[in-house]
Amino acid sequence: MNDTLRLLHERASCRAFADRDIPQNILESVLEAGVRAPTGGNLQPYSIIVVRDQAAKDRLTELCGNQRFISRAPVNLLFCIDWYRSRRWAAMEDAPFAADHSFRHFWISFQDTIICAQNICTAADSVGLGSVYVGTVLECFSELRSMFDLPLGVFPVVLLSVGYPLSKPKRRAKFPQDTVVHYESYDDPGDDELRKALEAKYQGKTFEVTEERVQTLRRVCRAIGGDELVGACMARIERDGAVNMAQYRFGLHYAADRVCRGNPEFIAKLREGGLEIVED
Ligand SMILES: Cc1cc2nc3c(=O)[nH]c(=O)nc-3n(C[C@H](O)[C@H](O)[C@H](O)COP(=O)(O)O)c2cc1C
């Protein structure tokens, strides 16, 4: 295996950072790996806000669900879709421009931004840094826009906390390759095969039955599948003497009744930020 493959096979998110700064020249060479990433039409419709200021990092921690590693990381990178720069370019050159009103462009620029972020993530690993994405920027779009003076058309996508790891981060188990890779056409696994893959990944991990978990699962199941699902879920918990991983993930962690709420609000936030990708 070459060094790049080894790096990619062994990577893991890092949430414990040493109290050590990242030299500017190292940061810049890592950032350059992002700038070199592929983008649709080579348009590079993203911007990256580098946050080193402690007060700003503390505020980010607060805004992003009190994830303490954000404050402790020497550098946080806020990745944003940026159609503002392209709009200005078009205006300067008397060219027509509507990318910030296009779902197609949004779809591609979201990918462009994440691909850039992931190049940076890998580059950071390659120089002995560690990093973790923070997706909870989703909860504070407006605050981030005003905190970092983002013009209309510049919209936060994800944060990456970067720093030197305190210790080697533990690798998380993943699905075996043949679960997620399909040659030529989608190969739908049978229940037994899928169960085996899930067992390989989660090793039968379960969660303690507590009153709070049961009450939450009752609420979520009722909202999604009515009394029938409540009955089935409770019977399963009774039978297993535990809350299983799927119940935990979709009923408690990403509670199914809550994750579907707020879509109109998210679209309104995009609009507020200058991305009018959905028409009324
Ligand atoms: C888009 C995205 C958002 C994420 N948001 C968070 C987050 O808010 N907090 C966190 O601790 N980890 C976050 N993560 C990291 C995941 O939890 C992590 O990638 C996953 O558990 C797999 O672990 P691994 O990266 O070590 O393989 C996020 C990852 C991605 C790709």
List keywords for this structure.
2 domains, NADH Oxidase, 4-stranded antiparallel β-sheet, alpha+beta, binds flavin mononucleotide, two-stranded antiparallel sheet, 6 strands, 280 residues
List the helices and strands and how they pair.
Blueprint: H1 3-10, H2 24-35, E1 46-51, H3 54-63, H4 69-72, E2 75-82, H5 84-92, H6 103-126, E3 130-134, H7 141-147, E4 154-163, H8 177-180, H9 191-202, E5 206-207, H10 211-240, E6 243-244, H11 245-253, H12 256-259, H13 263-272
Antiparallel strand pairs: 1-2, 2-4, 3-4, 5-6
Helix pairs in contact: 2-6
The structure holds flavin mononucleotide.
The site of flavin mononucleotide has 11 residues, from strand 3.
Report on this model:
The protein is 51% helix and 12% strand. It is an alpha+beta fold and 280 residues long. The strands form two sheets. The chain has a four-stranded antiparallel sheet, with helices on both faces. A two-stranded antiparallel sheet has the order 5-6. It is globular and about 65 Å long. Flavin mononucleotide binds at residues 12-13, 15, 67, 132-136, 158, 172.
Short structural description:
The protein has 280 residues and is of the alpha+beta class.
